[in-house]
Structures are given as structure tokens and as C-alpha cells.
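User: My advisor, Dr. K., asked me to get a structural model of this assembly before our group meeting. I'm new to this, so sorry if the format is off. These are the inputs:
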Amino acid sequence: MADANRQMVLERLPQGDKLGPQHFRLTESARPTAGEGEVLLRTRYISLDAANRAWMQGATYRSALESGQVMAGGALAEVVESNVGHLEPGDTVFADTGWQDYAVLPGKRLEKLPAMEPVTHLLSIYGVAGLTAYFGLLECGQPKAGETVVVSAAAGSVGSIVGQIAKLRGCRVVGVAGGAEKGRWLVDELGFDAVIDYKAGGLRQQFKEHAPEGIDVYFDNTGGEIFEACLFAMKTFGRIACCGAVSQYDGAAPPHGPRGIPGLIVTKRLTLRGFVVMDFDAQREAALKDLQAWVASGQIKVQEDIIDGLENTPAALIGLLAGENRGKRMVKVR
Amino acid sequence: MADANRQMVLERLPQGDKLGPQHFRLTESARPTAGEGEVLLRTRYISLDAANRAWMQGATYRSALESGQVMAGGALAEVVESNVGHLEPGDTVFADTGWQDYAVLPGKRLEKLPAMEPVTHLLSIYGVAGLTAYFGLLECGQPKAGETVVVSAAAGSVGSIVGQIAKLRGCRVVGVAGGAEKGRWLVDELGFDAVIDYKAGGLRQQFKEHAPEGIDVYFDNTGGEIFEACLFAMKTFGRIACCGAVSQYDGAAPPHGPRGIPGLIVTKRLTLRGFVVMDFDAQREAALKDLQAWVASGQIKVQEDIIDGLENTPAALIGLLAGENRGKRMVKVR
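Assistant: The format is fine. Below is the predicted structure of the whole assembly, which you can bring to the meeting.
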């Protein structure tokens, strides 16, 4: 059926349980048509993000997801039909298409992205992941040369870029990641100074070893135990960029928060700042220029983790939540 | 014995238990003499602060206290003998005399305070309490006219000034304090818009009632449950000034921190900043000018809670930790 639109529906919301294949259902409907002011998009690469799971827990910076809807998510998409002046068939946009072959969206807020090879870089380094790393580290973290920067989920789409930018800024960089193999990759390929394996236990001891003078900047992607261990290892006047809490998305909300709050914030005079990438939209062009220069010079290596097929999107997200990806994970739809 | 020096010794450190009279012992030694570069001080008013208790728990911004030492604490004191050029007998200084009649200290870092009537204002509004309120609110909290400011321990030395400065800046001010009587005082005398009684329970409901649109700035003196309730009531882009955690000083360290950390920091894009008043020493003169103008114009009312007699210092601190004071508590020694 050439005009079919495969859709991955969020069959039911997890209720404190781990996300599994049973929460999704692949269905098919007719390909929609663009109405006035709308565009018809064909999904090319769906972005997989821990945030997808957070949206299932309730309202965040967007409203909560509901059972029965097509699973929400951003994607690179190609314009197929356009009823707005600024977009033409063949243009590439980033849009909240959801997990489906086709989506009709209002054209107003969509913008044409530049041609790029590979186009997937628009989802990784020049997309939400790269910009999140850039703004979170540089604006919220304010790292200075010679300081120690720690980033959790270091092998992920954001963490792997945070570490490389911090190196560029002359910092000592310690990643937190699961497993020895990821650790070697971060040190050997991406130039991290050290890696802490959270699966090996003894977090506080590992911090003492690899960040013996304490942490100046902690870029937090995980929350939970790693957050707590970093809090205790922070230096006076340290900064924590709060980007996400992937350790807490897939399951029931934790009954308690990390110890040392707010006591350690006071005695160490810490600054913790939460952010979402769109808070920095006004500075986006300048950030992209920096990122492009760093990629062109080889100072930043872009790692992408591309899985094929819309039908594999649930497994791709479930695996991402378990930490199996390296770099930016996405699903190629077509 | 005219030359005697009464000393309140920290007989033993509390070990997870509540501070009580049994932790102190009044003793007497000979009045010391100033050596080279030193001054002999006669203690006049001892400042009582929740921080006194925090120092017993371990190293903070100062090293931890030890059993057997004279209890540490700041005081207004009069110079009796001076072996430094910039101080003369009769001068008033603020110094870490400890809880005793006389102390010998290096003169180098002491500065002569201006003559003032009443002299106790040098401990309250123009001392650590007033400056802590000023810098914590204005620098860490960054309140704007029309915003909602919440302050805990609102009837205390710092909180009572925070609320009044926030009113001056055109904010809606909600205090958190224990008991209806304190609440009435804050509203009727100090001009707070509303008060939440933490002893009455139902904190979240009370916040919904008195800060229905959410909190823009929370000045935290308490930590614990009040901190958690505020966190959940914060508005997007809200700021939390972390000043102290009096709810957690007098007993065992809490096994857990507040829920919502770091998740709510991210989704609400909060900024939490810990501080200690001396971090702002460079801006002290300008702050004092503002405070003096506000006191002179009657826009800030100064509340002091003065207890007589060195022997009553332990009870004064124990009572302060239980929240029995109103405004700045101090002990008059002579």
C-alpha cells in the first residue's frame, strides 16, 4: 500500500514499570493530506532521547503523553506537500512528527534546514544533542581552563560532546559511563582524561581516585546515585548543569532525593542550574558556528548510532534507557 | 575574682542527638593577656546562630568544633588591651571570641566598628544577619517587582529582614514560620503578605493557597520538608537561595534529600545557589548603605531578642534551634 502510513502507537503508558515492547503497537492508517497552512512530511530519521521516556511520566516542558496516541518524538523529515510559502517539496526540516511514516503539521514554525552530508548530523551535533551539550556546559557550567569537568552518561549523545568541548576549553575531563568498553572508547577515541564505571560500584572511591582535587563542573544527565556522589565530590564554588535524570525516567519516581541537599549547596556554595536547549534559542546561530568549526577541524568527533526501521523504534528507545547506545541514537525510517 | 574569665566549654559534641544543656559546662580560668600583635577583648554581646550548631556536625566553611574547647561563636566585643596600631582600648569589634568573658586574638584581621546606638544593631541588621539577608535575596534570588518571594524561618534574624527587603522591592512576600502568633507578627508588624505555618501541616496545600501562581524566589533557611514543598511549588525559571538548613542541624544527618532533585530543577529550569555572607565582602559597604537608609526611613524594622548572662548561652542556642526566637537572638555578657 503505497499510501499507507505506519504508526507506532503508545498503546498504554507505563505505570511505574520499566518501558517494554508491550507498551507499543504498530498500526497503519491512510497517508494524510496537508490542509491550509500545513505541510505533509515524510519521516526520515527519528531522534531517540531519554526525554521520550520522561514525557510518559507527566508534564515536563511539554504536556504529558497519553495512551493511544502516536508516540511523540522529533525527527528529520522531508517535505512532501507544502501549503506554506517558505517550504517546498524536498526540503528537510526537524519536526515533531511522532513515530510514523508521515505527519501533517502546521508549516508556520518549521524552518528549512541547510543541505548537509551526512544529513544525520542535523540530529546529532547540529541538533538538540550538540546544542544541549554546548549551552549546558558553557552557559550553565562556565568551565575555566584547568578545571575538572565531570559528565555522566558520558558515552551518550550529549555527554560525548560535552566531554570534547570541555577538553577544547582546557579542562580535565572525567566521564561517568557503564562498562569498561565504553570507558576505553571515551579515553582512546574522544580524549577523555579518565572514566568512572558506575556499574563497577564504589562511586565515591572512584571519584577520589579520578578527581582527587574535586569537581569544578558537573554536567548531570542521570540524577540519582551518580548525582549524589558528584555532589559530595564538588569543590567550593562548583557548578552543576542539570540536563536530565535518565536514571529516574524508567520506573517509579524515586521516593527520595540525593543526600546533602541543601546542606552541601550552602557549605560548598554551589550553583545548580536546570536548563532545556530551547531556552538558548537566541544564541543558536553562534553556537552552530562554533560546533561546525570544531567538527571541520577534527576537534570534535561525531558519533552516531543508527538503527534501521520504524518497527524497531521501541527497542531502540528501550535500549537507550539501558545505556546500550554510543553517541546519538536514531532510527532510519527511509 | 575581678580577673576571672568565665568560659562556656563544649563539654562533648552531640552525636546525632539533640543539643542539650549536658553538652556544655561553665568553667573559669584566669583572664589572659595580649601578646605581640594581639588584642585582649571583653565580650559584650554573643551572637546566637543556627550555624553554631552546624559547626558541631563537621567541617563547613570553618573547621569542625571539638569537645573540650570553649564554644566558638562571634560576638561584639570591646578592646581592653591592644598591641596593634589600628585598635585602642574602648573600641568595638566583631570577633570570634567564643563564649567567654575575655578572649585574646590576633589584632590583624579585626576592624574597629563605628559607634552606634543601639550597639546591638552591629550584630543584627548591620551584622551577619542583615548582610546575609541582603546578599542572599538580592544576589542569589534576583527578585523582580511583582514576583512572589517565599522565605523560611521567616521570623528569624535573617528571614525577618529578607521579607522586608523583598517587600521594598515590590514583591509579594510569603513567610514560613511556626505558630499563629509569629505569623500574625510577620503580617501585622513587618508587612508580609501571608504566612504559612509549618507546624499546622499540609504544607503543599498551604502553598497552593498562599502562592497560587507559584514561587519565583525561595530563600531557604531550613532545608527538609519545607524545601521540598517549595521545590514543587516553584515557577519556571525560579531561583532558590540556599542559606542554611536549620531543620537538619540538630540531630542525625537526614538519610535522604528532598524528592524532585534533580528532575524538577531541569523541567522548571531552576537555579539553586548556595552562599555564605563573606563571599560578598567586596560589596559590603554598598549593602550597609542601603540597609542604613532603609532603617532610617522606617522601611525596615529591626527585631532583636536579647537574653542576659553568659550562663544562659546554651539555653539561648537550644531555644533558637527550636524556633523560639523572634528576630536576632543574642546574649548580653556585660
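One thing worth pointing out at the meeting: Residues 55 and 63 of chain B are 7 Å apart (CA to CA).

User: Perfect, thanks a lot.
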